[in-house]
């Protein structure tokens, strides 16, 4: 059993993906102002054209350096790097405002976009610092501009900038709070690597389940037909007019137990047939949400047990069977519900993983993956059960078949994924790792 240690990250969102959009927007703005200076403002001052030209050249150089740092060298976008991005864009917007008419420029609203950028990349404190600096630059430009009008309209614009800054700071804090669980999950998995012995143990477990599944199917088919014949015969005997009250009671007992055994055999057959029958490109985030919705309305769920979710906002595509994956996740949720104490909480977190953050290097995680964690606040899994919990017919529940976790293991293995477990006396955490698809919905490879 592997134990995972939480270490939260600093950045509130996927900075690398946001920076790509920032780079495109920055270059588009600099190029547009430069072209406007050349072809529209033919009578403008030479200094303005010079500023526009310098802004384009410096923006291209700075963006190229940023891309080389994050995309070519694969360096993490740290706090200093993100502050530099926001400060540079603040300077670029100031240059644009200067070229297009100073404090009266319609491009002054671009300061709002810089504040929004800071909200996505920085903490709430960083948003306040960047927006305050932008407002200070704007007001200073008005003070230093000869004949600059600081009328009611000007101060209303400053007030709008301040209001947007406050709103963006609030949004930044909420985004950071919501994504902290996903980041912690990705961070701990990035530090976790399965050794060769661990991988061999997982493969051995999968082979053992396959062998047991084949044996279960054979035995179930051999037992099911005689059992049906016995039940039918007992039912007919109980319907006989000569049957006594005791005989009818015993017949009812035999029928009831026969039905229970028949359901058990059906479970064995389902377990044996467990495989990805409808292989397609599916959204694992959507399937996780569907399993949560079903679990929240399940009759076994007490009203005071709460399920809290923290899932990615964008789809994560994997190759597999949606019904099979839904069944595996629902089984884990149902186990968490049954293990939860009164008033307990169940946490469902999911985080996208880069190839470097997965516990296995190379295939099948060449395109990264998705980690789905289901945690409960129950008493944990008994020590003597933990090493056998994925074996069929091992159960701590009265009347349970012991196939729930075996089904989870087989379903995740069918999707070329992994199941990691961390259990203490304060609860259990099951982490399902699924490889991201290497092809897009239109069939083009993403690798």
Structure description:
A five-stranded mixed beta sheet has the order 2-4-5-7-6, sandwiched between helices. It has a two-stranded antiparallel sheet with strand order 1-3. The protein is elongated. The model is unreliable at 1-12 (pLDDT under 50). The chain folds into three domains: 15-190, no CATH class; 204-272, Helix Hairpins (Orthogonal Bundle); 280-435, Histidine kinase-like ATPase, C-terminal domain (Heat Shock Protein 90), CATH 3.30.565.10. Helix content is 59%, strand content 10%. The protein has helices at residues 15-39, 46-72, 79-99, 110-121, 124-144, 152-190, 196-238, 245-272, 284-296, 322-339, 383-386, 404-414, and strands at 280-283, 306-310, 317-320, 345-353, 369-375, 418-424, 427-435. With 447 residues, it is of the alpha+beta class. Strand 6 and strand 7 (427-435) form a beta hairpin.
Secondary-structure blueprint:
Layout: H1 15-39, H2 46-72, H3 79-99, H4 110-121, H5 124-144, H6 152-190, H7 196-238, H8 245-272, E1 280-283, H9 284-296, E2 306-310, E3 317-320, H10 322-339, E4 345-353, E5 369-375, H11 383-386, H12 404-414, E6 418-424, E7 427-435
Parallel strand pairs: 2-4
Antiparallel strand pairs: 1-3, 4-5, 5-7, 6-7
Helix pairs in contact: 1-2, 1-3, 2-3, 3-4, 3-5, 4-5, 4-6, 5-6, 7-8, 9-10, 10-12
């Amino acid at each position: 059993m592997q134990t995972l240690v939480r270490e939260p990250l600093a950045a509130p969102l996927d900075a690398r993906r946001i920076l790509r959009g920032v780079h495109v927007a920055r270059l588009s703005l600099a190029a547009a102002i430069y072209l406007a200076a050349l072809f529209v403002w033919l009578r403008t001052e030479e200094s303005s054209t010079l500023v526009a030209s310098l802004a384009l050249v410096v923006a291209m150089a700075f963006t190229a350096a940023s891309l080389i740092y994050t995309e070519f060298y694969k360096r993490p976008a740290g706090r200093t790097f993100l502050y530099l991005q926001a400060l540079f864009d603040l300077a670029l917007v100031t240059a644009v405002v200067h070229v297009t008419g100073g404090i009266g420029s319609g491009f002054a609203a671009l300061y709002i976009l810089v504040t929004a950028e800071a909200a996505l990349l920085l903490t709430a404190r960083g948003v306040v610092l960047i927006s305050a600096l932008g407002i200070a630059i704007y007001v200073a430009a008005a003070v230093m501009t000869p004949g600059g009008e600081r009328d009611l309209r000007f101060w209303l614009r400053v007030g709008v900038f301040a209001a947007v800054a406050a709103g963006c700071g609030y949004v930044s804090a909420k985004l950071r709070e919501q994504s902290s669980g996903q980041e912690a999950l990705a961070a701990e998995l990035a530090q976790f690597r399965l050794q060769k012995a661990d991988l061999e143990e997982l493969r051995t477990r999968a082979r053992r389940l396959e062998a047991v599944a084949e044996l279960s199917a054979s035995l179930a088919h051999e037992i099911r037909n005689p059992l049906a014949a016995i039940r039918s015969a007992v039912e007919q005997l109980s319907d006989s007019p000569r049957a006594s009250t005791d005989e009818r009671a015993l017949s009812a007992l035999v029928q009831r137990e026969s039905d229970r055994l028949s359901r058990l055999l059906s479970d064995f057959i389902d377990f044996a047939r467990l495989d990805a029958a409808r292989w397609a490109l599916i959204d694992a985030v959507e399937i996780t949400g569907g399993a949560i919705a079903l679990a929240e309305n399940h009759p076994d769920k007490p009203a005071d047990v709460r399920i809290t979710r923290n899932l990615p906002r964008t789809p994560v595509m994997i190759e597999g069977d949606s019904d099979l994956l839904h069944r595996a996740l629902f089984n884990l949720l149902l186990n968490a519900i049954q293990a939860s104490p009164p008033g307990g909480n169940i946490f469902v977190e999911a985080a996208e993983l880069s190839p470097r953050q997965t516990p296995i290097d190379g295939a099948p995680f060449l395109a990264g993956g998705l980690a789905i964690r289901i945690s409960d606040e129950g008493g944990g899994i008994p020590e003597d059960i933990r090493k056998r919990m994925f074996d069929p017919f091992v159960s701590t529940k009265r009347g349970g078949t012991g196939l729930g976790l075996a089904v989870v293991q087989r379903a995740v293995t069918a999707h070329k994924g992994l199941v990691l477990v961390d259990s203490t006396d304060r609860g259990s955490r099951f982490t399902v790792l699924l490889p991201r698809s290497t092809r897009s919905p239109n069939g083009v490879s993403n690798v």
